[in-house]
Design brief:
mainly beta; Immunoglobulin-like; 3 domains; 8-stranded mixed sheet; 6-stranded mixed sheet; 7% helix; globular; binds CU-O-CU linkage
């Protein structure tokens, strides 16, 4: 195993997109930022130097951070921000994971432009559980604003409303030629007929799940969230913010140009940016000036999204499959949704009914501390920062998916607190995630730091324990770090708490985090030194 060491210089640069110049925050001046290329078993050392005008933290999305919670990155969960002019070195091992993950800023809306891929290949002497591709390409979906969305979202948050919609989606930082002034801002992926390519797809968009297709081509999905799946052939990939998908593509068509296109799967009532981003699959020998063939993308089709999301299964003959823990120690039923928070100074809030938008898990809208991280407060036994009696059931039981009861004040209001979950080392946690209708229904991509979970079942309507537990896949459930809980539906996840620390769990739709659609799970130390979290590194940022 090697040591992979990089310097991430966080700096502002000016780029031109959609007919205008804009200042954006980047790592090393590029959008997307550098790809981190490692082999399983490597140690990663990243020196983050913050030369931007913003507070910064970097999160290594999907890396389990076994025994290295201090390097996880979410602001005020595991660390205080790296202030402008300061630096922090993230150090962690990449173990028992292969595939594609990604890194991103985990503070305000900065991940719009501060993100990049993490490519984890098998260690020396090991191979992929599929034929070696001719070439590999990272393919990162992003979302672009003409305005400075970091400032705009802070202003929206102050008055309790949703931030403005984005202006484009992007592929590797480029919107593609269906947008104005973008014919030179279109990514071309070059292929040779007869060869097979591995596309390492990341959805770094802030607001939207995406449908992705390539005209006349099919994909074979071989991994999601850096866990191998049974090869799954499909002509459409559905990917939620936070998720990754490794897909093989055989260049088996007539040499030519083919559009690779993505547009949102809008599962809810809000119609944000509904535009289409494109790249071009360009065969060797094609007429480079011909018009590429366009695929037909689904339009808000929940059936297609659910089919893709629910048919994937874990490849259990591959490395790192640990089986399904059978005995559940901690059982949670958690409602998730967007509602309202009462305005603290009536007249100053501009959300629905003059209140502010809020979101919650079991009606707890998570409020993060601002002077210390949860992890430091836990390790140093600082009182008064958080409580650990997060409810195991929602406080109000109702028909969660009945659209006729949205806007009912009895279910719509939540309140802020720092009430989180605490579990013992090595306990098995099961969580039913139930979308609730409150303001409206949509699919929330729920992400858990610090461990992968198994998705035992998912479905529509209200979860019914006696019926739906019969549908659990206890043989080869997909393993993920981010689950798009079906709109007007539910998903059941299970994991073993074997990594001491404080682990953020949140919706990966960016506005929902400051609204409170989040919690944190404290995993206590185990009985031995090697199952206990070591102390923080000496350069750990102070508040
Ligand atoms: Cu990709 Cu907590 O995030």
């Amino acid at each position: 195993a090697a040591i992979v060491e990089h310097t991430f210089n966080v700096e502002d640069v000016i780029v031109n997109r959609l007919c205008r110049d804009r200042t954006i925050t980047t790592v090393n001046g590029s959008l997307p930022g550098p790809t981190l290329l490692v082999q399983e078993g490597d140690t990663v050392i990243i020196h983050v130097i913050n030369n931007s005008p913003y507070n910064m933290t970097i999160h290594w999305h999907g890396i389990t951070q076994m025994m290295s919670a201090w390097a996880d990155g979410p602001e005020y969960v595991t660390q205080c921000p790296v202030v402008p002019g300061n630096r922090y070195t993230y150090k962690f091992n990449v173990t028992e994971q292969e595939g594609t993950l990604w890194w991103h800023a985990h503070i305000s809306f900065l991940r719009e432009t501060v993100h990049g891929a993490i490519v984890i290949r098998p260690r020396a002497g090991r191979t992929y559980p599929f034929p070696k591709p001719y070439k590999e390409y990272p393919l990162i979906f992003g979302e672009w604003w003409n305005t400075n969305i970091v400032d705009a979202s802070n202003e929206a948050q102050a008055i309790g409303v949703a931030p403005v919609d984005s202006d484009a989606y992007t592929i590797n930082g480029q919107p593609g030629d269906l947008y104005n002034c973008s014919s030179d801002h279109t990514t071309r992926f070059r292929v040779i007929r007869g060869k097979t390519y591995l596309f390492r797809i990341v959805n770094a968009a802030l607001n939207s799940q995406l449908f992705f297709k390539i005209a006349d081509h099919k994909f074979t999905v071989v991994a999601v969230d850096a866990a191998y799946v049974n090869p799954y052939v499909t002509d459409v990939v559905v990917i939620a913010p936070g998720q990754t998908a490794d897909v093989l593509l055989k260049a088996d068509q007539k040499p030519g140009l083919y559009y690779m296109a993505a547009r949102p799967y809008l599962s809810g009532p809000v119609v944000p940016n509904n535009s289409t981003t494109t790249a071009i699959l360009a065969y060797k020998g094609a007429d480079e000036s011909s018009t590429p063939k366009m695929p037909v993308l689904p339009v808000n089709d929940t059936t297609i999204a659910f089919k893709f999301y629910s048919e994937l299964t874990r490849l259990v003959t591959s490395r790192f499959w640990a089986g399904v823990p059978s005995k559940v120690d901690e059982d949670y039923f958690v409602t998730i949704g967007v509602g309202l928070i009462a305005c603290e100074n009536p007249g100053t809030c501009q959300g629905p009914f003059g209140q502010r938008l809020g979101a919650s898990m079991n009606n707890v809208s998570l409020e993060l501390p601002s002077k210390i991280s949860l992890l430091e407060a836990f390790v140093q036994n600082v009182d008064g920062v958080f409580t650990t009696d997060f409810p195991k059931q929602p406080p109000v039981i109702f028909d969660y998916t009945n659209p006729n009861i949205s806007f009912d004040p009895a279910t719509m209001f939540t309140s802020k607190s720092t009430n989180i979950i605490k579990v013992k080392y090595n306990s098995t946690v099961q969580m039913v995630l139930q979308n609730q209708v409150t303001l409206a229904q949509e699919s929330h991509p729920m992400h858990l730091h610090g461990v992968n979970f198994l998705v035992l079942a998912q479905g529509f309507g209200n979860y019914n324990a006696s019926e739906d537990s019969k549908k659990f896949n206890l043989v080869n459930p997909q393993e993920r770090n981010t689950i798009a809980v079906p709109t007007a539906g539910w998903a059941v996840i299970r994991f073993r708490a074997i990594n001491p620390g404080v682990w953020f769990m949140h919706c990966h739709l960016e506005p929902h985090v400051p609204w409170g659609l989040a919690t944190a799970i404290i995993v206590e130390n185990g009985p031995t030194p090697d199952t206990s979290l070591p102390p923080p590194p000496s350069d750990f940022p102070k508040c």
